[in-house]
UniProtKB/TrEMBL annotation:
Spans through the membrane: 48-66, 343-361
Protein name: Lipopolysaccharide biosynthesis protein
Region (Disordered) location: 1-21
Naturally occurring in which organism (per UniProt): Spirosoma arboris
Record key words, sorted: Membrane, Transmembrane, Transmembrane helix
Compositionally biased spans, kind Polar residues: 1-14
InterPro entries: Bact_polysacc_biosynth/exp
Length: 372
């Protein structure tokens, strides 16, 4: 009996060869059956699939026809930002700072480094300074922010349902602290739109060149904004970079003016005293004359030293000022691009996904009813 059992175990049989596959493997037969099932499902539901896709595409096409195509003009300016001199070039500046009890080092001109400059160039204060400047556009002196309101498309999109803003414009150039409530709201909307229209980047990682670019719906607006914005960045950046040196330069000029006023007063007193006491030989009078003469000589020396220090500071200010060099200016005509809506494509994709879901639910329900 045991021998019979051993023989049955070792001898192949049809039952052993019909062993099922592991769960992680799929047989070719199962793949073919699945493909046939999908084919049958498509054959039963192809009309529904076509109808839903056609309906979604028609809705998307109607949306495209009802919305205007957006035309944009793209321009760019490539420039190089050269840093001002520092270090040994400010020997006179370091000595002068020490004379006033300040740090012996030269003022640091590199306030913005790396990506900080890229963020700064797109910041709201700098953009607002650009918009609040006048420029000649189409032969007319125009406030740039008003030209932007009229030609950027903001009235037809962001302000479409607001009659107050659609009729709004700035009466004159203002600083941010002078805005009224309506002007604050308008400028916030304008900056929010411009922030998505401008960009500044470094074309090559190993290069020091920068590229300022923007795209807007008016060609002259794009070109004018780029040129004016770069000029604003240059002026504002230089003013911030040289703030310490300019303050010290102004202080030296003020000091030289004060010494000059005192010197003039002393010289006038000396001249009057000498005119009134030409024949006097009294020792006291001679002492007063010598004192006035000595004060005049001393003040004259201080005045010329102050002038020399102010002149050295002015030269330091020139060396410290960053230099903007335009490599590739903006040139007309700009690149024109027509941006159409994607209603047809989006409608087709959404309707296809919706059709698959409906067919899946329909087939599932049919399978359940068949089993019952």
């Amino acid at each position: 009996m045991a021998s019979s059992n051993l023989t049955d175990t070792n001898t192949p049989s049809p039952l052993v060869t019909a062993r099922s596959l592991p769960p992680d493997q799929i047989s070719p037969k199962a793949v073919v059956l699945r493909v046939l099932q999908v084919k049958n499902v498509f054959r039963r539901n192809w009309k529904l699939l076509v109808i839903l896709i056609a309906l979604g595409s028609a809705i998307g096409l109607i949306y495209d026809l009802m919305h205007k195509k957006r035309i944009t003009y793209t321009g760019s300016i490539m420039f190089n930002l050269g840093g001002g001199s520092s270090g040994n070039g400010f020997g006179e500046l370091g000595q002068l700072a020490g004379a006033f009890g300040l740090s012996s080092g030269a003022p640091d001109a590199n306030i913005f480094v790396g990506d900080n400059f890229l963020i700064y160039a797109q910041s709201r204060p700098v953009v607002e300074k650009t918009l609040m400047q006048h420029d000649t556009i189409r032969g007319k002196d125009t406030l740039l922010v008003n030209y932007y309101i009229r030609h950027s498309g903001i009235r037809d999109k962001e302000w479409e349902d607001n009659d107050t803003l659609r009729a709004f414009y700035f009466k004159k150039s203002k600083k941010p602290e002078e805005y009224n409530k309506l002007e604050q709201i308008a400028m916030a909307d304008i900056y929010g739109r411009i922030k998505g229209e401008i960009a500044i980047k470094q074309p090559e990682r190993k290069s020091s060149f920068m590229e300022l670019s923007c795209f807007m719906e008016d060609e002259l607006l794009t070109a004018t904004f780029l040129s004016r914005h770069l000029k604003t960045i240059e002026e504002d950046y230089q003013r911030k970079q040289t703030k310490k040196t300019r303050e010290m330069y102004d202080m030296l000029n003020s000091r030289a003016d004060s010494i000059a006023r005192i010197l003039n007063g002393t010289e006038n007193q000396l001249a009057q005293f000498m005119d009134q006491n030409q024949q006097v030989v009294v020792a006291q009078a001679r002492i007063k004359e010598n004192k006035l003469s000595r004060n005049s000589t001393f003040l004259t020396t201080l005045y010329y030293q102050a002038l020399q220090q102010a002149d050295n500071m002015r030269l330091s200010l020139i060396r410290e000022t960053p230099l903007f060099t335009i490599i590739e200016p903006v040139s007309l005509p700009l690149f024109r691009e027509v941006l159409s809506t994607q209603g047809l494509q989006i409608g087709s994709v959404i309707s296809f996904i919706l059709a698959i879901i409906i067919i899946f639910i329909r087939e599932t329900y049919r399978s359940i009813m068949r089993e019952e």
